[in-house]
């Protein structure tokens, strides 16, 4: 009996691992190609029989790519904008979500619906009005120009409100008996219990704003506030000629390296938080 | 008396200092520019701007990279609509009518008159100036020009038994060569194609139509000629090559096509002069370039961008902007930009510049592109060019896929375009 169970387990393991290996190799192929191309010389990129290992490693591609645009400055800007924005978002989002989840006030439903509608607005439709506002405030070409329109995130409010609603009323009552209510409850109880949601939202926000191209391009003019994606745009926008593939791949690797590293570090927590956020209690 | 003199001198000096301060106040000029081809072109532009600023101490130019042509147009439009226009923007030539319609740009005739006049204008290839001559005024100065060019793989020519120094000169030869250069395996699947061209693209359609004796739109931009014999015949050729004979690769855009050419996937291609640097650097075989094959005449449409001066800035800024535009369009800068970017130099006298002479000696292909300019026509443009183009290209794709006949497709495109252009009939 024992033997049958362990054999079954092993077969199941082979199937699941096999499936995972298959899917992950499909996902890894473009990344592999990117690394391979970034180290090639131009003539080797498009051979009829594709070559995975370059005949000689052209490390200077990375140096050349690094010299096209001020990566260092763009990195700093992108980090400040992305993480600064996240910081502000977490504050506004937790306060708003708590209000919608726990407080009662006139027009609450209408207001919440208005917030939800924000999620349906496409980026393109808000470009001109937002640009006008930023321009009138004299904020063009600054970090605020890129981040300000996103300070209030409807998605964040929605997600966190859901999580807050799932906190059992008993905990709140017990806390109130001990003299902890309102903002103190938010800080000491509600937020720690919502860590998975906060983490999930943070990752969504960071990857969206790290990769954003169009809006920063519109409101920035100089290196002062420009982000990595705009820098990368210089390599990628060659619709008339052929692109500089080797440099484009090197530049892309330079840009995505931190995100990959971060993901690898937080990978376990990210996945488990996704699993957990669906469960109650 | 002495005291009075001293007082006058000091008074005079103070005034001089105060007013020279005003004279030394720099005028700020902001220019939006696109990067549409590969290369460290932002660095090149930065170098130009630095040189200009150093030699013109009372002007400070800031160059702003603004994405590709579409994004630069969007940025410039948004900025103008918000009351914050750039002083100059380098935009697709076909944007001229839209910009005029918005009141966003100013005509440059007065500036040209003061700075070189007829002599200056005649040094540009005429079609470049014609592209932006609307309502009797000149609305932009040519900055970067590209044309379609015919590329062919000499090695594959040899392998197919064709003379590597005789590219096809007309449509009949094109079909024959394309057939010879296409290799299929035993089950009929294509190993490599004889030909490739962007088969749903307006610039490409204009190219073929021009060589067939027609054109796509009227000069004043209010009418399109999609539903004409010359266009239908061109489209019919496309259907034949791509769909029926299957000797031309399907639905490839310019960038991807260049890569296909490098990889030996297509033996001949219609592409932009903008790909020349890329092809030269990456090809592992010897290749040639030639005029586009003709049916009735040699012809090419111009592509590229002009420098436009924006409206609603100050007279001072416009004066300074003109100085920059004039400087950027000088033969020397024109030559340097052409060499760095692969775009064609807009000034005829750029050919005489030493660096250009050296360049064309080393790379005679560049000369072929220049010679073809003799047969150049302005890029077709209409009001609402973007919308009209979209309507056109959808029909092109359907026709090439065999979903509808070329004549039907062009009739539909004509009707849609007419609808879009109806409000502009009396412009």
Short description, anyone?
The complex is a heterodimer of chains A (281) and B (427). Chain A is mainly α and 281 residues long.
Q: Using the CA coordinates, give the radius of gyration of chain A.
A: 24 Å
Low-pLDDT runs of 5+ residues of chain B are none
Number of helices of chain B: 19
- Tell how many strands the DSSP assignment of chain A holds: 0
Low-confidence stretches of chain A: none
Shape of chain B: globular
Share of helix among residues of chain A? over 70%
Task: Compile the SSE list and pairings.
The complex is a heterodimer of chains A (281) and B (427).
Chain A: H1 2-38, H2 60-68, H3 71-102, H4 108-118, H5 123-136, H6 143-147, H7 154-165, H8 169-177, H9 183-193, H10 195-210, H11 214-219, H12 228-236, H13 245-276
Helix pairs in contact in A: 1-13, 2-13, 3-7, 3-10, 4-7, 10-13, 12-13
Chain B: H1 2-23, E1 27-33, H2 41-55, E2 59-65, H3 69-81, E3 88-92, H4 96-102, H5 109-114, H6 117-122, H7 126-130, E4 133-134, E5 137-138, E6 141-146, E7 148-153, H8 154-159, H9 171-181, E8 183-184, E9 190-196, H10 202-211, H11 229-244, E10 248-249, H12 254-262, E11 266-272, H13 276-282, E12 287-290, E13 300-301, E14 303-309, H14 315-328, H15 331-341, H16 354-362, H17 364-372, E15 376-377, H18 385-400, H19 406-421
Helix pairs in contact in B: 10-11, 16-17, 18-19
């Amino acid at each position: 009996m024992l033997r049958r169970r362990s054999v079954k387990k092993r077969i199941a393991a082979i199937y699941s691992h096999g499936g995972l290996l298959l899917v992950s190799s499909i996902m890894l192929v473009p990344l592999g190609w990117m690394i391979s191309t970034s180290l090639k010389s131009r003539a080797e990129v498009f051979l009829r029989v594709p070559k995975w290992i370059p005949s000689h490693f052209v490390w200077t591609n990375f140096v050349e790519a690094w010299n096209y645009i001020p990566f260092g400055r763009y990195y700093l800007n992108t980090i400040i904008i992305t993480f600064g924005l996240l910081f502000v978002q977490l504050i506004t989002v937790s306060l708003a979500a708590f209000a919608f989840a726990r407080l009662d006030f006139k027009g609450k439903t209408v207001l919440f619906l208005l917030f939800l509608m924000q999620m349906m607005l496409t980026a393109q439709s808000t470009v001109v009005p937002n640009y006008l506002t930023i321009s009138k405030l004299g904020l063009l070409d600054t970090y605020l120009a890129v981040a300000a329109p996103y300070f209030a995130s409807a998605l964040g409010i929605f997600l966190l409100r859901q999580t807050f609603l799932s906190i059992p009323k008993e905990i709140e009552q017990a806390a109130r008996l001990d003299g902890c209510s309102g903002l103190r409850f938010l800080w000491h109880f509600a937020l720690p219990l919502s860590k998975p949601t906060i983490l999930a939202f943070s990752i969504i926000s960071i990857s969206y704003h790290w990769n954003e191209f169009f809006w920063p391009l519109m409101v920035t003019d100089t290196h002062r506030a420009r982000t990595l994606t705009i820098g990368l745009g210089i390599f990628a926008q060659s619709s008339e000629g052929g692109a500089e593939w080797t440099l484009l791949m090197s530049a892309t690797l330079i840009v995505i390296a931190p995100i990959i590293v971060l993901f690898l570090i937080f990978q376990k927590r990210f996945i488990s938080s996704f699993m957990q956020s669906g469960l109650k209690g | 008396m002495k005291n009075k003199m001293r007082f006058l001198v000091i008074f005079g000096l103070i005034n001089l200092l105060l007013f020279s301060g005003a004279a030394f106040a720099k005028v700020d000029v902001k220019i939006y520019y696109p990067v549409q081809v590969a290369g460290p072109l932002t660095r090149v532009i930065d170098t130009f701007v630095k040189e200009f600023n150093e030699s013109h101490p009372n002007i400070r130019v800031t160059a702003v990279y603004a994405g590709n042509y579409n994004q630069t147009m969007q940025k410039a439009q948004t900025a103008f609509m918000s009351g914050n226009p750039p002083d100059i923007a380098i935009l697709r030539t076909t944007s001229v009518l839209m910009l005029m319609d918005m009141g966003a740009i100013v005509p440059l005739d007065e500036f040209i008159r003061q700075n070189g006049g007829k002599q200056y204008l005649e040094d540009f290839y005429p079609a470049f100036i014609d592209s932006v001559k609307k309502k009797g005024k000149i609305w932009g100065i040519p900055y970067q020009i590209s044309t379609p060019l015919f590329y062919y793989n000499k090695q594959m020519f040899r392998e197919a038994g064709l003379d590597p120094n005789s590219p096809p000169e007309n449509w009949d030869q094109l079909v024959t060569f394309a057939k010879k250069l296409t290799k299929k395996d035993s089950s009929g699947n294509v190993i490599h194609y004889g030909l490739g061209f962007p088969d749903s693209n307006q610039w490409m359609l204009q190219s073929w139509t021009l060589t067939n004796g027609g054109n796509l739109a009227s000069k004043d931009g209010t009418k399109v000629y999609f539903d004409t014999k010359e266009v239908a015949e061109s489209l019919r050729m496309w259907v034949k090559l791509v769909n029926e004979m299957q000797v031309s690769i399907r639905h490839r855009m310019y960038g991807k096509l260049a890569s296909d050419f490098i990889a030996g996937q297509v033996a001949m291609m219609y592409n932009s002069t903008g790909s020349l640097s890329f092809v030269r650097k990456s090809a592992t075989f010897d290749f040639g370039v030639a005029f586009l094959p003709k049916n009735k005449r040699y012809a090419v449409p111009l592509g590229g961008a002009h420098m436009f001066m924006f409206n609603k800035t100050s007279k001072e800024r416009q004066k300074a902007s003109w100085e920059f535009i004039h400087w950027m369009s000088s033969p020397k800068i024109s030559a340097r930009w052409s060499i760095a970017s692969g775009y064609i130099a807009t000034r005829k006298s750029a050919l005489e510049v030493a660096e250009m002479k050296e360049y064309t000696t080393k790379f005679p292909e560049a000369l072929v592109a220049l010679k073809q300019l003799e047969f150049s026509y302005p890029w077709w443009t209409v009001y609402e060019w973007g919308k009209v183009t979209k309507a056109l290209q959808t029909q092109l794709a359907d026709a090439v896929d065999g979903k509808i006949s070329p004549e039907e497709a062009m009739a539909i495109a004509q009707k849609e375009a007419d609808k879009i252009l109806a409000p502009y009939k009396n412009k």
